[in-house]
Amino acid sequence: MTDSTQPPHSSGGGASGGGSAANVLDATTKLLAPLLNTLDSLQFAGRHLHPPVLDTLAKHLEPLLEPLAAAQDAFAAIDWPEHLQDFAGRLSASTVSAQKGVQGLVAAAAAENPVMAAYASMRHATAARAELYPLAQVLPPLSRFFVDPQAREDATALARIETAVDGLAESAAQEAAGESSARPPVGVMHLQNERDTRGGCSLYIPEYYNGEPMPLVVALHGGSGHGADFLWTWLVAARSAGAIVLSPTSTGSTWSIQEPEVDHAHLMGLVSRVSEQWSIDPERILLTGMSDGGTFSLLSGLQSDSFATHIAPISGTFHPFLMQVAEPGRIKNLPVYLVHGALDWMFPVDTARLAATTLKNAGVDIHYSEIADLSHTYPVEENWKILQWLQGSVASS
After folding, report:
1. Stretch 357-380: mean pLDDT
2. What's the predicted TM-score (pTM) here?
3. Sequence ranges of the domains in the chain
4. Is 60 exceeded by the pLDDT of residue 295?
5. CATH number of 183-392
């Protein structure tokens, strides 16, 4: 954590600077409201990023900065007790990242390459969510924030998450007492996947995992992306629906589309490692990805030895020659959920329409979703639908 995101300290007391329980609760509540609103707004902006509307998005986001800064100032004025330093530091760091996300998107309109600058600003929004997530175990509003909107009225799903939170607290108490916990590792993990490295992976295991088989989502980032960031694209839906997420980082700067065997072997090895430690439903293993990741999900998923039972390419591109190398026995009735935006400026939608037709003619069980207002961005609302499709269908053998 950098100096700018260290836990806030107060130089003195004062009416607003005391560290009483009431002041702590008040400052936390007043910061959470604008922070979560800003993160929701950044997610909306990220979903609707399209070169012609960058100025409009920036104008809608910029007014969020003033109330967020005011709430952060009040939060920083608290003389935080020692046992709440990590809590305060995470909220402060998340706020700083959210502010940087808004500022970056506002500045993107004047950048040399506006849309790429806008994409880069979204990484701050991801960092903000990563800082907040551990606090979902202690703050009910945050726990609900990390539940898919389509599952927030599902009493069974919410109860399952709440029970998991209680279980984590029990495990933490056991560890604090020097006792070993029988619970398997759960939550967010990064395995040799620091931001300056390639070839590692990030994982999310739902906190209520109990050893019973779960679907696995292997989610591939876009060009120049990173698995530690792309994990957050899928965490909320997976936490809500009950799925494990493996978010690998490509061995090179992007997926080895010209030499697919390189990253194909990489993915096969990672899935094998995950399957050794956690129980995976062998009939529901999804290979999905965005942009270059979407393209590679098809390249790898159509291989005869692929682990994937289902494939969901998002905003990728398609080469008809794939049908020449795919074995008929592999692709016959293979479930594929293809998503593309009608506004995609990088890979025009005609390529997706061609893919849908070609795959269908080859015998693939194709579900094609063309989204009218989607540019070359990730439609996070589609994740819940994809998971329902995954859990409701079984690939043919």
Report:
1. 96
2. 0.90
3. 3-145, 183-392
4. yes
5. 3.40.50.1820
